[in-house]
């Protein structure tokens, strides 16, 4: 039985994650990334602020942002949560491995999801 979701062609699939970075749809990214269904970007200012997550809002069509915080999950500041909510985006924090797996599953369900991922160091 195949347990991996069927991902539509042209979508970004998170294949691997490590302390050094991520492999998404065959491309290697060193360090933090922002993964959208159609594109993956280097997350140059990997901070938990509205400014650093502005590319998520600007990308559009994101309803759920999965925040991968490394090896452990943490809390999202209420002001950041409110800023994203004002743009129609719900943010869920978890460890990076869980965020990667959840992104792939939701992508297979064609949900409007994005992931902001910190390497698990």
Write the layout of secondary structure elements.
Elements: E1 14-18, E2 21-24, E3 27-30, E4 33-35, E5 40-42, H1 54-59, E6 64-69, H2 78-86, E7 90-94, H3 96-108, E8 113-118
Parallel strand pairs: 6-7, 6-8
Antiparallel strand pairs: 1-2, 2-3, 4-5, 4-8
Give an account of the 3D structure.
The chain is of the alpha/beta class. The protein has one domain: Hypothetical Protein Mth938, Chain: A. It contains three helices and eight strands; from the N terminus they run βββββαβαβαβ. The chain has helices at residues 54-59, 78-86, 96-108; strands at 14-18, 21-24, 27-30, 33-35, 40-42, 64-69, 90-94, 113-118. The strands form two sheets. Strands 5-4-8-6-7 form a five-stranded mixed sheet, sandwiched between helices. Strands 1-2-3 form a three-stranded antiparallel sheet, covered by helices on one side. α2 (78-86) links the parallel β6 (64-69) and β7 (90-94). The longest helix is centred in the last third of the chain and has 13 residues, at 96-108.
Keyword list:
121 residues; alpha/beta; Hypothetical Protein Mth938, Chain: A; 5-stranded mixed β-sheet; 3-stranded antiparallel β-sheet
Quick overview of this protein structure:
The chain is of the alpha/beta class and 121 residues long. It has helices at 54-59, 78-86, 96-108; strands spanning 14-18, 21-24, 27-30, 33-35, 40-42, 64-69, 90-94, 113-118. A 5-stranded mixed β-sheet has the order 5-4-8-6-7, with helices on both faces. Strands 1-2-3 form a 3-stranded antiparallel β-sheet, with helices on one face.
């Amino acid at each position: 039985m195949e347990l991996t979701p069927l991902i539509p062609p042209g979508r970004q699939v998170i294949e691997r994650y490590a302390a050094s970075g991520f492999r998404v749809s065959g491309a290697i990214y060193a360090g933090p990334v922002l993964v959208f269904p159609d594109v993956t970007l280097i997350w140059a200012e990997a901070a938990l602020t509205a400014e650093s997550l502005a590319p998520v809002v600007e990308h559009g069509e994101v309803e759920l942002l999965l925040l991968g915080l490394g090896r452990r999950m943490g809390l999202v500041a209420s002001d950041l949560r409110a800023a994203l909510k004002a743009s129609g985006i719900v943010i869920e924090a978890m460890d990076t491995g869980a965020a990667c797996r959840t992104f792939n599953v939701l992508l297979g369900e064609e949900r409007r999801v994005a992931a902001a991922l910190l390497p698990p160091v």
